[in-house]
Design goal:
With 260 residues, this protein is α+β, with helices and mostly antiparallel strands. It is built from 8 helices and 11 strands.
Length: 260
Amino acid sequence: MLFDFAPDEKFNFLEAFAKRVGASIQEATLTLPPFLGEGTIKKMRLVEDFSLLMHHYILKEELILRRSAAEPAGQRINVLFHINASPQVLPIVDEHSPTVREDVHAIRITSTNIDSQIRFPACSQVFFMVLSTTRPALRRLLNIKKMNRVVEQILLGQQGFLFYENMSAEGQKKLRMLATLDPKAELSELWIWIHVQELLCGLFERLLARETLKHSPIHQADAEQLLLVRAAVVKDLRVAPQLPKLAQLAGMSTSKLTEL
């Protein structure tokens, strides 16, 4: 199933998705209809300028969430934490088999002027969290005194950006915990906010550890090509990626691809 949406200031994902699948919302929670799978999508307002959409389900068919970009980039930031946990035991990969890896535990932080497409496979347990905030609010929360160029572009820039990070084992554990917390339980809102801040702290520790090279603003067309390059790199990890071939795939020079 494909769900296309183009958010604006008044857009409500939960209401739009409920209408698309013919489901109802009870206490800010959507329960998936049986034809689609089993599980929930919960909406939570944490504190001022921080809101959360928590997806936790097992699907009967593939689900694709495709969000159109907003223009201009503006101040809003989305942080996506994503785990697909297959219930089946994966086959052992020997030296003669291609090593194939999907995005099983990834973090993506992006401005809203970049198109977003996430695929959720059937028969896998999905833990997917979207944290929506603004540059000023995130800057106040983190209170980073010495930024590298990556963090500067996220917190202080005015143009688009797209960064990926791996999720640590501890981060995966926290995301699973968040997905299974009962929001009605005593102190649950506080616990959720604490775990979200821990996830953000881990993410920005990794971003601050990156090399302080210049990062150019990213445009929508470049972002789409970079996603193709990324998919090609992780498709078969036996094969070392070759920059000229990847640049040809992206339709750009090797110097531009390297810079992006």
